[in-house]
Specification:
- By secondary structure, the protein is α/β, with parallel strands linked by helices.
- The protein has a single domain (4-194, 225-252), classed as NAD(P)-binding Rossmann-like Domain (Rossmann fold).
- The protein has helices at residues 13-24, 37-54, 68-82, 110-133, 159-179, 197-202, 206-216, 225-235; strands at residues 4-8, 28-33, 58-62, 87-92, 142-147, 185-191, 246-250.
- A seven-stranded parallel beta sheet has the order 3-2-1-4-5-6-7, with helices on both faces.
- Helix 1 links the parallel strand 1 and strand 2 (28-33).
- The chain is globular, with a radius of gyration of 18 Å.
């Protein structure tokens, strides 16, 4: 297989699991992460692991993928790497933003809100625009992003992230609507509560969330990154060519159960 995938936030969590699954599926992996110290070392080891899986067709860059300057610098490099091949997937899996309340004694600032909405939401739009302008998205390409139940459930400290992800969902719908005529689809994937590093940043009650989710979920367990990676893999198949402008639930039915927050 000569196709490539581009993952924004590729080193851990859903992005990391998806990178591994798609490497196993035979895709070349182009990944951005923004890590320091021990996490950075683990990301480099993970890159080597992927290279063993897919024959060395892996490129990782430890830079801020939400930066417009990064997009302008690296998209030409991506074009050189994939040559005449296809960029099958642009996946947004960046989990970095402000987790605090919108109001109260300690509330989110404009700078924090603007940063969160851009990094976790609107940055996907600018990547899509620039990749499309460069001719890297074509018939059969997919645009995807990860969302969560917190987009329609109010909870402590989640306001800025919720705004960002709701914006991302709207962007994805519009991308699919505008680019569908070219055979390019765009969909959101809503995962259930998943024990990842990102979850520990959302709430100091994350262990309680996991326990309650195991009780609440119809399948009596939390979502795993591998569950989500499998869903992405399915959506890359030709049989999914007509799935567009949608939110795909990968949560065992969790969103249909009573809320725990």
């Amino acid at each position: 297989m000569k196709e490539w995938v581009l993952i924004l936030g590729c080193s851990t969590g859903h992005g990391g699991a998806t990178a591994k699954r798609l490497a196993e599926d035979g895709y070349g992996i182009l990944g951005f992460h923004f890590d320091r110290s021990e996490v950075k070392r683990k990301a480099l080891a993970f890159k080597d692991e992927l290279a063993e899986i897919n024959g060395g067709r892996v490129h990782f860059w430890n830079v801020n993928a939400a930066s417009i300057e990064t997009m302008d610098e690296y998209i030409p490099k991506i074009k050189d790497i994939i040559g005449n091949s296809i960029l099958k997937l642009l996946l947004h899996s960046i989990a970095f933003g402000t987790t605090m309340n919108l109001l109260g004694e300690k509330h989110v600032s404009r700078k924090q809100m603007d940063m969160t909405v851009h990094v976790m939401g609107t940055s996907l739009l600018y990547w899509t625009q620039k990749l499309h302008d460069a001719g890297l998205l074509c018939k059969g390409s997919r645009v995807m992003g990860f969302t969560s139940e917190g987009n329609y459930v109010a909870m402590e400290g989640y306001g800025p992230v919720s705004v960002a992800k709701v914006a991302m969902e709207a962007i994805i719908r519009q991308i699919g609507w505008e680019l569908g005529q070219y055979g390019i689809t765009a969909n959101s994937i809503q995962a259930g509560v998943t024990p990842t590093r990102a979850l520990t940043k959302i709430s100091d009650r994350w262990e309680d969330w996991i326990e309650r989710t195991e009780y609440r979920n119809p399948m009596k367990r939390t979502t795993t990154p591998e569950d989500v990676a499998g869903t992405v893999s399915l959506l890359l198949r030709p049989e999914a060519d007509f799935i567009n402008c949608s939110t795909i639930y990968c949560d065992g039915g969790e969103h249909r159960s009573g809320r725990i927050y």
